[in-house]
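Lab meeting, action items carried over

1. Structure of the two-component assembly. Owner: GW. Status: complete.
Input record:
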Amino acid sequence: MNSRSGIVIGALVFAAAVCLPLLSRSLPAIAGPYPLAVARDIFVYLALAVSWDMLFRSGQVSFGIAGFFGLGIYGAALSSLRFGFPAWLSILAAGAFAALVAALFGLVILRLRAIYFSITTLALAEIFRIIFHNGGDFTGGAEGLIMPSLISNSDSALYWVALSAVAAAVLASSWFERSKIRFALTAIRNNELQAKSSGIGIFKYLMIAFVVSSFIQGVAGGVQLQIYGAASPDDSFDTNFTLLPLAMALLGGVHSTAGPAIGAVILGIVSETLKLKIPYGHLVVYGIIIVVVILFMPNGLYGLWRGRTARRADAGRGGERRHHGGPQEPGPGTVGAEEARRG
Amino acid sequence: MANLETRALTKRFGGLVAVNDVSFDLSRGEILGVIGPNGAGKSTFINLVSGIYPPTSGTIHFNGRDVTDMEAHRRAALGIARTFQLIHPLEDLDVLENVMIGFLFARRLSRKEAKRQAEALCASMELEDLHRGVAQITMLETKKMEIAHALACAPELLFLDEVMAGLNAEETLDLIGLVKTIASRQNIGMGVVEHVMGVIRELTHRVIVLENGAIIAAGPYEEVVNDPRVREAYLGGAL
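Predicted assembly:
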């Protein structure tokens, strides 16, 4: 997909998201607070899935999403309860808090690679949980904190707040995709030696990706606090906030903005539907989806679609096309063209 | 004064001395051959000079500046570029984007300017059809892309680690011609690691021979290949 059609599709989706609350007010069939409540949950997960992918583009797999999300929830709660921040500012403070902690730990853990990095981020999330669990009166201990007042109790207002987290994630992710950062992260993922031998400061770019993605996870936490009105150690740092965004990104297609977003919308709707029909059974379906995706379409739904459009364009142009990598490549058209050239 | 000077450069991996007390100079415009049996320390030597790992002892100076402890990406920006023995194209980028990397990061150009210059560089190397993926190009094109990737860093010195390996005779001649042209036109100093003695003879002004990490002979090609120690250690009765 070229960048222009990407922008068009993105704008259309965003317009649809903007229209949803208006629609639900005017059409009783899908009306009421329920679709909006589902939508804002999905938005929070969508921001988490996209932000996880931003770091994954460097090849680093974080299992610490729940950790920085939880820091965001507590960052927002503490900044407004203890320091009197207004709600909107507490959401930004949540992002800043998560980003600051990421920067400090990043100095050490961004020297780790592969599974060592992943396990360490998982451990960090657990450490954060324990710290807030044992933080005494300041953090509310095991019971956590309850917010006496929120930004608004209106469903559509909360919807807008959640949509702003999505906007932050999507804007940051497209900035990554459209700048030098894409080259740096792709090079680091493909081959670190080659990358540093061509002048890429590996640590600098890993730090940028880690801090920015943690900022978004923190903002998503700040939004979550506005939606649920409480911060507790067990709910805020729940591993589902790591696992579900990861599954969403894998299903939709990694290394892109659109992929994780598509995955979040699909899995969000599927799990909401299943939750009502087979309580807890939706987790089984999640597991099955992950297995099927990894086995049969490692580039996810978006990767599948992108591969197909690229192949169609290829047939039209007689061999010249952009390569997107991945197991479904190269397309049959390209192989033929290559042989013709060599022969 | 030479552009690059190493003094008593040594690298140990545990009990193994991979590079042992190597002192050498390399200047712009000069092509230096580095030969020796497998495991002699040729690639380790390049890794030390390009900053992939730090030496155990010894110093490296580049244009009078001590770069012994400088990180690899800073050395690339300063003008020391290299290719890899095991080729490492970036598989999720197309040919043009691979070549753009050095322009973007070592030279810090904008994306637009990097793209323009990468296209010009590829054209000068007869690399075409630049939007192909790196899995779809021939071995010769891959080698050219690797060299272009290194040249994009605007090197004063370029180290080529067995860049001819895997090419047939005709392609090798093609690439030798290209490397010669680049070295003379851009006045780049080169360190060429190669097993194909014909390439060393065609390309280099001077040769050093490594065995067990140490320099056992240095001098012009004809002199070095007739050195009895070199014949013993590396060439055998082949010549």
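2. GW to write a short summary for the group page. Key points so far: Chain B touches chain A at residues 50-52, 71-74, 76-77, 81-82, 84, 88-94, 97, 100-102, 104-107, 111, 129, 131-136, 138, 149-150, 152-153 (CB under 8 Å). The longest helix of chain B spans residues 169-186.
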